[in-house]
Amino acid sequence: QPVESGGGLVQAGNSLTLSCAVSGRTFSTAAMAWFRQVPGKEREFVAQISHSGEVTEYADSVKGRYTISRDNAKNILFLQMNRLKPEDTAVYFCAASATSWRNREYSYWGQGTQVTVSS
After folding, report:
1. pLDDT tens for residues 34-86?
2. Contact at 8 Å (CB) between 34 and 14?
3. What one-character DSSP code corresponds to residue 7?
4. Which has the closest alpha carbon to 18: 61, 96, 60, 77?
5. Rg of the chain over all Cα atoms, to the nearest angstrom
6. Residue 4 to residues 13, 28, 54, 114: CA-CA distances in angstroms?
7. Dihedral sign from CA coordinates of 16, 34, 93, 118
8. Those residues with Cβ within 8 angstroms of residue 115's Cβ, 6 or more apart along the chain or in another chain
9. Is the pLDDT of residue 24 over 90?
């Protein structure tokens, strides 16, 4: 079960880093991802990273501002968010173990962490 942390309230233009801790031995062999959701809307893909960290993919809305990374020695996934905008406000979810990289489908989900960007 992934566990997210690092959410909070931040002013537009500033930065925030989310973390996701994952227990178990399979972290280093699993692709990981971040999604986000605004109340009343569907969950939206943000970024994903291959098991080795060599391959990453981003949603167009965050490309150039967000960076996904991982520490396989510590079983932690990160999302560095820069130049935040009010429209980035959402609950951010960590997802583990891709069943389909192409379709961005994942097996395990965290409870989410709230990110609020004020204007």
Report:
1. 999 999 999 999 999 999 999 999 999 999 999 999 999 999 999 999 999 99
2. no
3. -
4. 77
5. 13
6. 22, 17, 22, 10
7. positive
8. 7, 8, 10, 16, 18, 36, 81, 84, 88, 89, 90, 91, 92
9. no
Q: Is the pLDDT score of 32 beyond 90?
A: yes
Of the candidates 18, 2, 3, 5, which has an alpha carbon nearest to the alpha carbon of residue 84? Answer: 18
Question: pLDDT at position 26, please?
Answer: 86
Q: Tell me if residue 118 falls in helix, strand or coil.
A: strand
What pLDDT does residue 100 have? 93
Q: Are strands 44-49 and 113-118 parallel, antiparallel or unpaired?
A: unpaired
Residue 104's CB: how many other CB atoms inside 10 A? 18
